[in-house]
From TrEMBL:
Protein name: Phosphoglycerate mutase-like protein
Species, as recorded: Rickenella mellea
Organism phylogeny: Eukaryota, Fungi, Dikarya, Basidiomycota, Agaricomycotina
Pfam families (alphabetical): His_Phos_2
Family: Belongs to the histidine acid phosphatase family.
Gene3D superfamilies per UniProt: Phosphoglycerate mutase-like
InterPro entries assigned: His_Pase_clade-2, His_PPase_superfam, Histidine_acid_phosphatase
Length: 476
């Protein structure tokens, strides 16, 4: 179920005309609402009109959860939870409705985002915007060693005397580092996955390198999540070796990290038109308040979109940290934070789904990954696939592109991929020997991909692979 931030949802319930028309001068709330954002809101209207929206807890609203890995029992199990996305599990899984007697699960590809981490973006004066204790990662041992040598691990130290201390928080955490809470979520994710695909369905027999291939980005946090998943599936993997497949960071297709100047030009173009710039102008008051509190005025990375604000707020709220307060005592308000969450959803949907040429942009930047997925399923079709499960651990950029390419945005506007967000692609074999694909997004079957022939699914993947991709990316 897709839901909206409390302030916007309640405003729609109370004020939005039945026609869901454009903002008017008689409604001050919508005068300040970007026209494209209003269109996104209207897309959600049918889900909430006439329903009572509760905002007793600011972050635990009908928008979803932004301050805990645990979804309250009073919410639907598959409520959007940015801190820990819902995922496949034995309690809420049902067999494909189209599966005939004798059908069996025979192959899978899974892609997910890593779990909770520290902020990946830092304020110019980061230190003063955190509690004096800063961020503590001493409860999480990070091992980095060469095979056959001492099992060394690294600990982050942040000296109080360091001349650049103002640029980082106090404590024992680096930027973008998986937290102990994120690792715990990964372990539980693995437990739930195993309870379904081993215990309930009997598809996977054991955690082994013959049946399971794990692919990650080069970032420590994705590799640590992979380890947590495997441990959750089978506790006896602790202390054992298990290979993770990566690609060189400069050409890695999973985050994705390969360069594509043509894609950059396309995105720059559609972020230079009113459909995009209006929302920046219409939220100028919000931006001024955030700049005054956080010291981000005049910085391009903080003014071209709300990505950095979204990251620094969600990383804090998901970890149980307070919102930033500066040395004067001025703090980011919860109301402004909720507005940033709503804008973040709007921006991600616009960039990867709604903007003119967003499809081309997604295909250019994730075409290599779509090609890899297509090759996986074609290899299975040919009988040459040796793995039963290929499991990818990537990033929000991986998930939003996959969702866009698979057409999720044609069903409903896309939201920012939550931590632990997951797309499962199952292949079922019928009693007649036919192969069908079912796709689940965060534990729920995707409406348009509940039961499609494998040839049709491969064609969908291949349709997202531009011809002469390398040449296109490097053309002027």
């Amino acid at each position: 179920m897709l839901l909206l931030p409390f302030g916007i949802a309640s405003a729609i319930r109370d004020f939005l005309p039945s026609s869901c028309g454009p903002p008017t001068a008689s409604n001050n709330l919508f005068v300040k609402t970007p026209s494209m954002l209003l269109q996104l809101i209207c897309g959600f209207l049918i889900l909430i009109r006439g329903e009572r929206v509760s905002g007793a807890i600011t972050f635990n609203t009908s928008a979803g959860i932004y301050n805990s890995s645990q979804t309250p029992s009073s919410f639907p199990w598959n409520t959007y939870n940015y801190c820990n996305a819902p995922h496949v599990n034995a309690d809420h899984y049902s067999l494909p409705v189209n599966a005939t007697k004798g059908s069996e699960l025979v192959y899978m590809n899974v892609m997910m985002r890593h779990h909770k981490r520290t902020p990946d973006n830092l304020y110019p004066n980061e230190n003063e915007l955190n509690p004096s204790a800063g961020w503590d990662c001493s409860d999480f041992i990070q091992e980095n060693y060469g095979g056959g040598t001492a099992r060394v691990f690294h600990e982050v130290t942040i000296p109080s005397w360091h001349p650049f201390l103002s640029q980082i928080w106090n404590g024992t955490c680096d930027a973008g580092q998986l937290t102990a809470g994120g690792l715990a979520d990964a372990v539980q994710h693995g437990k739930d996955f195993w309870a379904l695909y081993h215990t309930k369905l009997g598809f996977l027999k054991s955690v082994n390198t013959k049946d399971i291939l794990m692919r990650t980005s080069t970032e420590d946090r994705t590799q640590q999540v992979a380890g947590g998943l495997l441990f959750g599936m089978d506790h006896t993997t602790a202390g054992k070796s298990f290979p993770l497949v990566t690609q060189p960071s400069g050409i890695d297709s999973l985050p994705p990290d390969y360069s594509c100047s043509k894609a950059n030009n396309i995105r720059n173009a559609y972020q230079s038109v009113p459909a995009w710039t209006d929302h920046l102008e219409e939220n100028a008051d919000l931006k001024a308040r955030l700049d005054a509190t956080l010291g981000t005025a005049g910085l391009d990375a903080w003014s071209s979109w709300y990505d950095h604000f979204f990251d620094t707020f969600t990383s804090r709220t998901c970890a149980g940290h307070p919102l930033p307060c500066n040395s004067t005592g001025a703090c980011v308000s919860q109301a402004d934070t909720n507005q940033v969450f709503a804008i973040g959803d709007f921006e991600y949907n616009y960039i990867w789904n709604a903007a003119q040429n967003s499809t081309t942009y997604t295909q250019l930047t994730f075409g290599v990954m779509f090609a890899e997925l297509a090759m996986n399923f074609k290899l299975f079709q040919s009988g040459g696939e040796t793995f039963k499960l290929r499991f990818y651990v990537g990033h929000d950029g991986s998930m939003i592109r996959l969702a866009s390419g698979l057409g999720f945005g044609k069903v409903a506007p896309l939201r920012w991929p939550a931590l632990g967000s997951e797309v499962v692609m199952e292949v079922w074999k019928t009693s007649k020997g036919e192969h069908f694909v079912r796709v689940l997004h965060e534990g729920t079957p995707v409406q348009t991909l509940e039961w499609v022939g494998i040839d049709e699914f491969v064609a969908l993947l291949q349709s997202n692979v531009p011809d002469n991709l390398f040449e296109q990316c490097n053309s002027s």
